[in-house]
Amino acid sequence: MAEKDLYKILGVDEKADAGAIKKAFRDQAKRYHPDRTGGDKSKEQRFKEINAAHEVLSDPKRRQQYDLMRKGGFGGGGAAPDFSVFQGIDGIEELFGSIFGARGFGGGSRVVYETRPFSGFGDGFGAGPRPRASSAPPAEEVVRTRDGHPVTKRGDDIHSEVEVSVDEAILGAKIDVPTLDGHVTITVPPGSSSGRKLRLRGKGIGGRGDHYVSVKIVVPETVDARTEELVREIAKRAPVKLKR
Q1: How far apart, in whole angstroms, are the C-alpha atoms of residue 213 and residue 177?
Q2: pLDDT at 205 (0 to 100)
C-alpha cells in the first residue's frame, strides 16, 4: 500500500459515511488553513492534500473510482477507473503520484488531460478534457475553480480573462474574478486595452505559480444617436495611436 491514503489524510475509516467525512474535513481544514498557519509551507501543502482528499471522498462517484484504484483496479485486470471525474481538483495528480508511485496511477502510463496548443481564451473553454495516456506532463489543460469557472493551467500558472465595459477600461474599475482559492477583487487600471494582463501573485497551482487575468473589452452591439455622438466626441478629445 502507498505511503499516503486519502482516508488517512482526512483521518477517517474507509467505511466512513458522508457526515463523518464532512466533519473530519472541517476539523482538519480549520487546523491547517493558510490563514491560520502563518505562511508555513508544509502546513499549506497539508491543507492542499486535505482539500483534494475531501473533493474526492465527498463525491460518491469520485470516491467509487478512487476505491477502484486503491484496490488495484487500474492495471490489475479489473475495470479501468474513469479518470475524468477527477478533473479540476487542484493538486490531485500530484497527490495521486505520491499515493500510487512515480510511474503513475498504479503503474504504467500516467493519465493526463488532453493538451492542445495555446490559442487564447476562445471556444476552447467549452470542451472538456479527454483522458489519454502520456509520459509527458501536460503543456496546457482546462481546469475549473471551486465554483466551476473554467481557467487554463500552464505549468504552475493559471490564465483566465475578465470582460470589462468600455467605461471600465477607460476609467478603471475593481472587478471580482474567480481563482482556485475563491473570488478575489482585481484593479483594472485606467486606460486598459484588450489583452492587458493583470498578475495575481501566488494564485497559481499550490501557491507556486501566479494567476494572469487578461482584459477583454466588450462594446455595445447597438447604440443610439446620442451615444454615437458622444463616442465621436471622445474620439476627437482623446485620440488613440493605432498600429495598423
Answers
A1: 8
A2: 86
